[in-house]
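Workshop exercise sheet. Pairs work together: one partner reads the sequence aloud, the other fills in the structure field after running the prediction. Swap roles for the next sheet.
Pair: D.N. / O.F.
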Amino acid sequence: MATDSRLPLEFELFPGFDSIPEFEESAPTFAENSLGKALYFSRHTAEAVLADDSGLVVPMLGGRPGVHSARYAGIGATSEQRIEKLLQEMDGIEGAARAAHFVCALSLVRQNRPLAIITARADGEILTSTRGIGGFGYDPIFFFPALQKSFAELTPQEKNRQSHRGSAFRRLLAALPDVL
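Structure field:
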């Protein structure tokens, strides 16, 4: 494995992305959805394609919202509506049963050939009400014990160092010299 993961990389939005039919995220895992998206879009370019799937997992709720995190309160629901639904489902649940984790799965594919599938997670718990004004999605109710803050209370730099997505990208960057 290469020891220097700093590579000259350029990321850009997929050319013509808006004209390609949407990929249906119907797989039961984040990694399968991520890989499915990357494979789907790789058919339209010779360049490497990076796709992400991520969301919130609450074991006490059987893993919900899980891969349906963005659609948890219905298609078109706001983050506030998703948070409200989750807090209602968690009403009366206390202590360790409020454990949760964010998951991020990244898939790198070139010409329909998987190069890397990376996953990472951030462990925490669901608060009983929102805290903080930063971040997005479920961040205001996701408490991160290591810093004693919700993800919405973290600075962007703190969140990048601690989050599931930041961890997944660091792992991907470390793997790139071996897969490209």
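Discussion prompt: Confidence is low (pLDDT under 50) at residues 1-5. What would you look at next?
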